[in-house]
Amino acid sequence: MNKQLFDELVEDAPPSTVDVAGIVGRERRRRFGLRLTGIAAGLAAVGVVAGLVVQNPATSPSPPAAVAGGFRLVSDTDASVEQTARRLEQALDEALRATAPDARWRRLFKHTAADGEPPMINGKAAADVAQQVYSGSQGVETGDRRGMLRFLISSPTPCTPGAVVQCEDASSMAEYWANYFTCAANQPVCAVGTLPDGRRTKAVSTGANRHRASVELPDKRVLAVEVSNRFALNKPLDPDGAPLTLDQTEAVARSVAGRILP
What we know:
Keywords: Membrane, Transmembrane, Transmembrane helix
Shape: globular
Oligomer: single chain
Protein name: PknH-like extracellular domain-containing protein
Organism: Actinoplanes couchii
């Protein structure tokens, strides 16, 4: 399922729809200050284990060793979805700050998070918890470079009608996911690997303008982070390239994935 979401993740333009209900709920949570605090993940080491070195695809650094602040993707009720979304937001914020200390979150649109705040992660309770999707986008600025970071958790398992908003033909999705952790001929900068626990990883770049890193989660869902040089609709692409490098993009993805428990 969710091929469209993954396809949107690598499109030039931002998503064409906005989850208004999720945004309203998230803004309400912000007004009342319902944010988790005090989670220290020891992410300073993330920059050292940045990610697969594309020049040497055989190199596959380990994920962050620290499990402090780990959490599970609990999403069987609306309340648990909101709690999990907040934890993902904090993990993503801490990962960016540890990986690129000079990077700053920048507001993308009127209904997205404010400057200095991580993406508003949205989700919806699913009848089949393994089908739960989480996604969010926010601007990122590093020095003179400005762009967008997109975050997505999706599932490669066959979609159960009614369990999620999008449900596609299982046969077509089986082929899509079977090849997801492989490098295609049109991906000249691509590296795949396997973490010590057997989970698969993939890092893809289209030059200086777009980088995407994916990590297989313990329950076989896939976490993906993409950083591009597109900051917003109807604005020119940043000629200096994406605000993060491929290694930094993969470091962020691995850091968040390392916090998610089986």
